[in-house]
Design a protein that fits this description.
The chain is mainly beta and about 350 residues long. It folds into 2 domains: about 15-50 and about 60-160, Jelly Rolls, CATH 2.60.120.10; about 165-280, Sandwich (Jelly Rolls). It is built from 1 helix and 28 strands. It has one helix at about 295-310, and strands at about 5, 10, 15-20, 25-35, 70-75, 80-90, 90-95, 100-105, 110, 115-120, 130-140, 155, 165, 175-180, 180-185, 185, 205-210, 215-220, 225-235, 240, 245-250, 250-255, 260-265, 270-280, 285, 290, 330, 335-340. The strands form 6 sheets. It has an 8-stranded antiparallel sheet, with no helix packed on it. Strands 3-4-11-6-9-12 form a 6-stranded antiparallel sheet, with no helix packed on it. A hairpin with a 2-residue loop joins strand 15 (about 180-185) and strand 16 (about 185). The longest helix is centred in the C-terminal third of the chain and has 14 residues, at about 295-310. The protein starts with a strand and ends with a strand. The mean pLDDT is about 95.
């Protein structure tokens, strides 16, 4: 049941989490994967699982669409963007443009699907001597009609480069990572060039806030009265107070009146994901992995994918994973390759 005060509304999140403004939704995955085997899959019996569509989370983890390694083998997207935020674990990326990557805890990958891209997102269990805890968010951000035909592009935000602000006293601090937009004097890294977030009038912001017990943080007011903001609260027994309303694990707070907001945490650590942005103000037609403006464009997306596979699939598997010893890297497929050390 939703409750409302004069500035905002508490909502039950469900799965996936509902979007706000230009955001379509946010999916949150938390898996307590066991030790890995020689093939980067779980060192556990998976014979009784509905492999190919394993979302039941038995024993605290899922295989999703993976059959040997957990994850999402090759699948298409068109007309929007995916923003994948990793808090724990490792993701191996490969796509139809020939690009590939491995990124891990703290890193963010931002993919503009544009006119169409197929990609795989696999979750290799790289540790054989310890469990492989895994925690990610994937946020879907819409594109305006003018950019739905853009060439696909992905950018990496490496953990050590993402701006962060720490407020409060030791033991009751809040740490804010600025993934998109601005927070006080911190400005996020540049989004992909054809992203809605690249338009300064969009006021797109993504903030990841970790709250220690007793922490308080004030969120700056949106600059535009057309901005919409949602705060997604989670964590074991998490409970915060936002503008006088109590918001607990699995609930969100939708801002109704633009202005500053104060989050006051109770006596347990809590996490708040903040999404903010101005509506694109265009019709939305969505079916599965395609987000367009009309039903006719959705039909065309399916036809194009069947005909071209959005450039084909240059990999020898629909679920490629990189070697266990591989460090974090991003091969953009155009000669640019970034390398970063692998962290747990």
């Amino acid at each position: 049941m939703a409750t409302t005060n004069r500035t905002g509304r508490v909502v039950e999140l469900g799965r996936p989490w509902p979007g706000v403004g230009p955001f379509l939704f946010a999916a949150y995955h938390l898996d307590k994967y066991p030790r890995g085997n020689a093939d980067l899959g779980p060192d556990a019996d998976i014979s009784g699982r509905p492999l190919g569509s394993d979302f039941g989370n038995p024993a605290g983890w899922s295989m999703y669409h993976g059959s040997g390694v957990p994850g999402f083998p090759a699948h298409p997207h068109r007309g929007f963007e995916t923003i994948t935020i990793v808090r724990q674990g490792v993701i191996d990326h490969a796509d139809s443009t020939g690009a590939s990557a491995r990124y891990g805890a703290g890193d963010v990958q931002w993919v503009t699907a544009g006119n169409g891209v197929s990609h795989s997102e696999m979750f290799p269990l790289v540790h054989t001597d310890a469990d492989n805890p895994f925690e990610i968010y994937q946020v879907w951000l819409n594109l305006p009609a003018r950019d739905k035909g853009a060439d696909p592009q992905f950018t990496m935000q490496w953990n050590e480069d993402i701006p962060a602000i720490v407020t409060g006293d030791p033991g009751s601090q809040a740490r804010i990572r600025v993934i998109a937009g601005e927070f006080d004097d911190a400005t996020a890294l540049a989004p992909p060039r054809r992203s809605w977030a690249a338009d300064p009038d969009s006021e797109v912001a993504i903030w990841m806030i970790d709250l220690e017990p007793g922490a308080t943080v004030e969120l700056p007011a949106p600059k535009s009265v057309d901005s919409r903001r949602m705060i997604y609260v989670h964590g074991d027994d998490a409970s915060v107070v936002i503008d006088g309303s109590t918001v607990t694990d699995g609930q969100g707070y939708s801002q109704l009146v633009p202005g500053t907001q104060t989050i006051r945490n109770a006596d347990r650590p809590a996490v708040a994901l903040v999404l903010q942005g101005v509506e694109i103000d265009e019709p939305v037609a969505q079916y599965g992995p395609f987000v367009m403006n009309t039903d006719a464009e959705i039909e065309q997306a399916f036809l194009d994918y069947r005909r071209t596979q959005f450039g084909g699939w240059p990999w020898n598997s629909d679920a490629p994973v990189h070697p266990r010893e591989a460090s974090r890297f991003a091969d953009h497929g155009d000669g640019r390759v970034e390398h970063r050390p692998l962290t747990k």
